[in-house]
Amino acid sequence: MNGSHVNRFAQVAESTGFAIMGALSGLYVAALMAKMDIEEINSVGVLFLVILYGSVGFYLGTNLSGSRPRTNLIALAGATGTLIAALAALVSVYMIVLDEIPPVIWNVAIGFWWMLGVLLQIATGTAARLGQFTGAAGQARSDAKRV
Fold first, then answer.
1. Over the stretch 34-62, which tens digit does the pLDDT of each residue have?
2. Whole-prediction pTM value?
3. Distance (Å, whole) CA 147 – CA 136
4. What is the longest distance spanned by two Cα atoms in the chain?
5. CA distance 51 to 24
6. What's the CA gap between 75 and 61, in Å, rounded?
């Protein structure tokens, strides 16, 4: 394996690991929400969607490469989203393991903060990737004009 293959494998392994961590954080938050016993959100379908949402968010929102000066705010927003989602998942695990029964509003707030964190990850990951593609296309067009 040459260096580029090793680097590519490392990126795939890292992204897969982040996606799994996102799925696990979604599972923890969904498990905490299930304790509220609200019929509309207490189903296998909702559990699957929460896990999928977390997986996609952590996959897209982490490993933002090529941090140019104009993408620093994107990287900061993505990192903030990761932190918020991870903290919500940590609080969820704490409450599940210690069998805490907080007021319903706490559970709703934890779920909301987790969803917001993952949304930030999805938005920043998508924006960074679109910027890489449009930046590359724009660079190619400007290089073609110079020739």
1. 887 777 778 888 888 989 998 888 888 76
2. 0.72
3. 17
4. 68
5. 7
6. 9
Reading the block at residue 50, the tokens are 């929460």
Residue 101 phi, psi (nearest 5): -125, 85
Compute the distance between CA of residue 54 and CA of residue 24 in angstroms, rounded to an integer. 8
Please give the Cα distance from 111 to 98 (Å, whole number). 18
DSSP state of 70: G
- Contact between 118 and 54 (Cβ < 8 Å): yes
Cα 80 from Cα 117, distance rounded (Å) = 7
Tell me which residue of 21, 28, 23 sits closest to 111, measured CA to CA: 28
Classify burial at 133, counting beta carbons within 10 Å of its beta carbon; exposed 0-12, middle 13-18, buried 19 or more: exposed
Token output for 125: 């990951």
